[in-house]
Amino acid sequence: MTALQHLLDEERPERPSSDVDAPEISATDIAVIGMAGRYPGSPDLDSLWDNVIARRDVIRDLDDAALRALAVPVSLLSRSDLVRAGGQLEDVDCFDADQFGIDLAELALMDPQHRIFLEIVESALQNAGLGVRDPAVVVGVFAAAGPNRHHLEELLPLLRLIDASWDTLLPTGIGADHMVSRVAYKLGLDGPAMAVAATCAGSLAAVCTAATALIDLQCDVAVAGGVHLTSPRYLRRGPGTTSADGRCRALSADADGAGMSSGAGVVVLKRHQDAVDDGDPVLAVIRGYAMTNDGAARAGFAAPGIAGQQAAVDQAQAAAQVGPGEIGAVFCHALGTPLGDAIEVGALRRVWASADRPARTALVAPKTHLGNLDVASGIAALQLAILAARAGTVPGNLHFSTPGALLELDGSGLTAQAGDAAWPSDLRRLAGVSSFGVGGTNVHLVIEASALPTDEEWAAAVLDEPVPLLLSTRTAADLRLFAGRLAEHLERHRPALTAVSRTLLTGRRVHACTHVVWSRSVDEAVAQLRAVANDPAPALDHTLPTMPAQSAGPQRVPLPAHPYRRIRIPGPTSVLQPLIDAGGAA
Asked: For the region Disordered, what residue ranges are annotated (predicted)?
């Protein structure tokens, strides 16, 4: 349903019957209908969850050769305060230029964060079944981006060598405002396109801003998230601020500071009632959110304030109409700085002191698994919370010994631990997500998991008639790759096959290479898709199948994105050297 229809229709359709314990859909409920992410050691969100549950350390230690390859100045290599570790994304210098129609010269000058974010947004829209633009649906994009180190460290020094007014050469690939506008331009998104700046709270603030835009009917669908790209090394500022080995030991007695990392994530949002009416895949629901600032009630500009953090959590829970005793886990900001962690938990203790029922809420520190993602920290925490709540598993904290003494958890109803735990069976799968920024911005969300669209009767049943699974990619090699990726997804998630068919037929663009698999069950589809993946020359179909009849259950389900054919993007020198030479620069 579009925003225009909302304004014209005074009556909403009757809500379908549901379990008596399920809460009513509120006009302010926001559904997460798709998401995508890239994190250290995790090219997608399935691998992120696998790494978290397997307790894999994704922070990499680097030797001198690796640091020199990353253009780290030789003068830094001998410094004793250089921490040679961090979280890295793979192939940050690669991009599918053909897919997005951007020439190499423009890409060479563009902040790599912009390239990463553009791919992530398209992947998230495909995941939501919105890979084909509907001009009647207004889509907005809201995002935060980290500092443009590409500009500061590579581009600007070259521009200054040019014997001209170099500032006129600045490309439209530098600022975060250009990033969201480029996404809107390349993907045809005609709703609000807004860059959100709130330091480390940026990406979660972008989610809140997007939710408000949906509630205010500024758009029908909103894409929100953030990206942060940094070099996997840093100079340690001292104990208690930055980690000595690049690992984040948040909430732990041996916490010694934050370690730096890179990542990008996006969620696709829709008004909850609209998502239900339209048959969208609902991964989770944002029940309430709040943003506050510490104001002057803190020790200094960069210091966190306990009252402001408490207010954000209180207000978000009030908006969600839940109490602290109903929250199964809080996915904390928790940097691993002993004082900062203690202030954050102190604010939570104040909120949990008002619980009207005994609480047993787990504190989860995503940065122990991923490092400090700066502006992308909040979106990573939100995505991890959604994955955990849907799986019914509360992940433990990595690099964790015992709770820090300053946390004072005894008798608070809050716990922190290393091991995973089952979500309490007597609680709704409600989770809190926090993200706080230097300067005092505090953001907190309350989310609730939706039932996984993998009802055993749908997944295990053999359909009376086979349904078509349309595979359509730009090349035969991509077709084989996508077939294998889809087979893995179906085997892992076992969604309703009719919904898979409808999603592929309506939610993906048709490309030059198409192949149709006809299947009556998930198991049969997996076997057929693997056969396509292993076929060096899969047969191509030129007639598109018809839509299967609508059945009970979801009409669309989350599916993996099509593969990208990335190529290495040259550095800015390749573009600017002729201008430097023409200017007579040495």
From this structure: 1-23
Ranking 76-85, 113-122, 503-512 by mean pLDDT, the lowest is 76-85
Contact predicate 179/205, CB 8 Å: no
Position with higher pLDDT, 546 vs 371: 371
pLDDT score for 164: 52
First to last CA, the chain: 61
Structure tokens at 3: 């925003």
Q: Is the pLDDT of residue 367 over 90?
A: yes
3-state secondary structure 339-369: HHHHHHHHHHHHHHCCCCCCCCEEEECCHHH
Question: Are β-strands 193-195 and 139-145 bridged in parallel, bridged antiparallel, or unpaired?
Answer: parallel
CA–CA separation, 341 vs 353, rounded Å? 18
* Type and span of the H or E element at 292: strand 284-293
Find tokens 């809500």 and name the residue. 15
| Cα–Cα dist 232/69, whole Å | 12
Inter-helix orientation angle 176-187/112-127, to 10°? 40
Q: What percent of the chain has pLDDT over 70?
A: 91
CB 262 within 8 A of CB 373: yes
pLDDT digits (tens, 9 = 90+) for 429-460: 999 999 999 999 999 999 999 755 444 545 55
Exposure of 396 in the CB half-sphere (CA atoms within 13 A)? 16
| Buried-state track 306-332, b at ≥16 Cβ within 10 A, e below 16 | bebbbbbbbbbbebbebbbbbbbbbbb
| CA atoms lying within 13 Å on the CB side of residue 278 | 23
CA distances from 415 to 331, 347, 348, 423 (A): 12, 14, 11, 13
Cα 557 to chain centroid, rounded: 18
Q: How many helices (H) and strands (E) does the chain have?
A: 21, 21
User: Quick one: fold of 27-449?
Assistant: Peroxisomal Thiolase; Chain A, domain 1 (3.40.47)
Select from 522, 467, 516, 465 the least CA-distant residue to 489: 522
Pick the closest to residue 344 from 432, 247, 246, 447 (CA basis). 432
Mode of pairing for the β-strands spanning 414-415 and 361-364: parallel
Between helix 202-215 and helix 377-391 the angle, nearest 10°, is 70
- Over 50: is that where the pLDDT of 87 sits? yes
> Does the CA dihedral 277-279-285-290 come out positive or negative?
negative
d(CA 284, CA 385): 10
Q: What's the CA gap between 403 and 459, in Å, rounded? A: 42
The per-residue pLDDT for 159 is 75
Q: What is the pLDDT of residues 175-196, one digit of tens each?
A: 788 999 999 999 999 999 999 9
Confidence of residue 69 (pLDDT cuts 50, 70, 90): confident
Task: State the CATH architecture for 456-567.
Answer: 2-Layer Sandwich (3.30)
Checking if the pLDDT of 214 tops 50, the result is: yes
Specify burial of residue 46 (Cβ count, 10 A radius: 0-12, 13-18, 19+): middle
Residue 35: strand pairing partners: 267
Question: What is the mean pLDDT of the segment spanning 308-328?
Answer: 97
Domain residue spans of the chain: 27-449, 456-567
Separation between Cα atoms, residue 179 and residue 184, nearest integer Å: 9
